[in-house]
Amino acid sequence: MAHPSAPSTPLITVHYRRRLLVWVVAVCWPLALAMCTLGTYVLTVLDIESQLLFFVMYFPPMWCAMMGTLYLAQTNCLTYDVHRRRVWSGTGHVQRTMGRWKDGDRLNYSIYLGRLERIRPSGKRRAIVRNAYVVDQSSWTAFVDVFLTHQNETRRGEDADAADQGLPTAVEVGIRWRFFTCVLLVGLALGAWGFWLVPTVDGPLPVVSAAYFLFGAVPLVLRPVLRYEDGLVSVKTVGRVREFPSRGYERLEYSVYWGCLFEVRADGKRRRVARGWARDQDSWKVFVDRFMEDRSSE
């Protein structure tokens, strides 16, 4: 599973997609300035008093421009020392997390969530870095392959014990309902707070509260349950059952680099079926282990 060039390379550096980020910054900063000017014109010249309209026009390009600039200011996403088996540099977040390292802590790559994390002796996990669209996929793949090889070497005995326990043939995976309930409640709290401060539908707070509310409410209402049995995957929502791979796709594939289940076309194009972070973690882990075991035996 190790990357071909990894053994001869003492350091593996995971980069950002700088060309993409340059394009984002080059487009979004002028666009943010233009939207700010247009919003000011709408508010003053046309005498339309709506902070909500100004926020909707101005915030999206400004946020993209700021995030793109922040990523470009980082030298890299992370650097992994192959010989010492340590992450020793990267973004400010990586450096801060590694700077709080304590005795008994260990690094772990979660194939279920597609992220590198720090685990305390108590079992508490803290994400260090996860795969994202702005991360260069070739260097991320090289890092994950080598890190998993090292990780599996140290856990060979644990994996054998887990294998002896066996896995169920049928698995059902729900959503993280506690997480989505908390998000929904935050949206309601923000909406109530905003109405108490300014009892009018104006300003950015209603948009933020509505976004939180919908993000939490939609999964709770639809209640998507993923079921895996006899090599077949289906997702049941309220009044609907979908089977995968769907029409036009020929197979299913689980990516340890993303922590997601994909359906794949004949030309290699993929579409996400389920994301690990949104699913109940205990049953998701059982599903991933069962799915990968079945695929490895084919």
Q: Can you lay out the helices and strands and say which pair or pack?
A:
Layout: E1 11-14, H1 18-44, H2 51-73, E2 78-81, E3 86-90, H3 92-99, E4 106-110, E5 115-119, E6 125-130, H4 137-154, H5 156-165, E7 170-173, H6 177-197, H7 205-222, E8 225-229, E9 232-237, E10 240-244, E11 251-255, E12 260-264, E13 270-275, H8 281-296
Antiparallel strand pairs: 1-2, 2-3, 4-5, 5-6, 7-8, 8-9, 9-10, 11-12, 12-13
Note down, in words, how this protein is organized.
Keywords: Membrane, Transmembrane, Transmembrane helix. With about 300 residues, this protein is of the alpha+beta class. It contains 8 helices and 13 strands. The chain has helices at about 20-45, 50-75, 90-100, 135-155, 155-165, 175-195, 205-220, 280-295; strands at about 10-15, 80, 85-90, 105-110, 115-120, 125-130, 170-175, 225-230, 230-235, 240-245, 250-255, 260-265, 270-275. β11 (about 250-255) and β12 form a beta hairpin. Residues about 1-5 have low confidence and may be disordered.
Give a quick set of tags describing it.
PH-domain like; 298 residues; transmembrane helix; single chain; globular; 22% strand; membrane; 13 strands; 4-stranded antiparallel β-sheet; alpha+beta; 4 domains; transmembrane
